[in-house]
Write a structure and sequence with these properties.
alpha/beta
């Protein structure tokens, strides 16, 4: 069974400093909230159960938004103040520990994909071995600290290296985690998500990559304009 997971527990400090009154998951891009965009992508792909982690101060407003806008979906909500994306990621994995048969597809709430890209990722991932970690990647680098991956040139999918100063592509906030990966990460602590992924890679778990085209991370207020222009161009 494929279950969705959304990391929406960031501080959103850059937006707060710029005067945005709402919590980051509820900031609108192209007339729609980031949270709504992300949930809709899972919904369109046929995934009806999603685990989501919010910061405690945002949990009430975001939970109310979900109930009001997606009454047919099943949400497992975690309210927790985490300090890093790795801690949020592990919180979603820990919540899945009693469901060993599940694959958990995690994405970040602030990643903007072209229409249909998320569903294509899921459809392609379903054709791959369920015991692998599958990462969404992009060749569009617009991140302050990108996580590079090197991809086998023969099959175009197998990741042969994670990290470094360069590579064939960078991760873009989509992570399909099999049971083996969840068990390997269990009871560990990592300073950053890249450290967690590096640990799984070194543990011998196979990693595959699926190119998702251009992906925009809405990390800063100015990214909203970039994302909206990208969405308008993608729709034309």
């Amino acid at each position: 069974m494929l279950i969705g997971g959304i990391i929406a527990a960031g501080h959103g400090s850059r937006f707060k400093k710029s005067g945005f009154p709402q919590t980051k998951p509820l900031i609108k891009v192209g007339g729609r909230e980031l949270l709504g965009r992300t949930v809709s992508q899972f919904q369109e792909a046929g995934i009806e159960r999603i685990r989501i982690i919010f910061r405690s101060g945002n949990c009430s407003a975001c939970s109310h938004y979900l109930i009001e806008n997606f009454p047919q979906m099943r949400f497992d909500i975690i309210c927790r103040d985490t300090e890093t994306s790795a801690e949020s990621f592990l919180s979603l994995l820990e919540d899945a520990k009693d469901h060993e048969e599940e694959q958990l597809l995690i994405t970040t709430v602030d990643s903007i994909f072209s229409p249909g890209a998320f569903k294509k990722f899921i459809n392609k991932a379903k054709e791959m071995d369920s015991g692998q970690v599958i990462l969404g990647v992009t060749r569009f680098v617009d991140d302050e600290k990108p996580l590079y991956v090197t991809i086998d040139q023969e099959d175009g999918e197998t990741i042969t290296k994670i990290g470094g100063q360069s590579g064939d592509a960078v991760t873009c906030g989509v992570y399909l985690m099999p049971t083996r990966a969840r068990l390997e990460a269990k009871n560990n602590k990592f300073s950053a998500l890249r450290a967690l992924l590096g640990h799984l890679f070194e543990a011998g778990i196979p990693f595959k990559a699926i190119d998702m085209g251009t992906v925009i991370d809405v990390d800063r207020p100015e990214d909203i304009t970039t994302a909206e222009a990208f969405l308008a161009k993608s729709a034309s």
